[in-house]
Amino acid sequence: PLDKSKVITMHVTTSIEEKKLELQKAVVDGYNIILIPRPWPKDPQKHFMPSEVAFYLKKNGFDTSKIPVHVFESLTNEKERTFTGNVQELEEKEFSDLSIMVIRQTKPESYINF
Predict the structure, then answer these.
(1) Tell me: domain 2-107, CATH 3.30.750.24, correct?
(2) For 59-70, what is each residue's pLDDT tens digit?
C-alpha cells in the first residue's frame, strides 16, 4: 500500500544529504521504499547507485543482510533485468543508470481486508 511506502529520488543535481537522512528514517520506520538512485559517472563523490546505498546504510548502523530489496534495471527494453536479494548483496554490484530500487519491509495487503 502506498500509505506504507515512501518514494525518494536521489536523481537531482543538488545535495542529497537530507534525502539520505530521509532514507534512513524510512528504513527505521519500516516503510517500503521506492528509491531512484543517482548516477553521476563523471564525479564519484556524487554517484549514489545501489552499491553506494548499500555501503551508506551499513556505515550508518543498519544490518543490510536483513533488508530485502529488488533492483529493476532498464525496464521495458531488451536489457531489462531484475535483482532480488538483500541490501548487503548490492555491495560492489553495478547497475545501469536506468535503475530503480524497491526496499520492501511490509507485507502486501489488499484494500478488501480493511
Answers:
(1) no
(2) 999 999 999 999
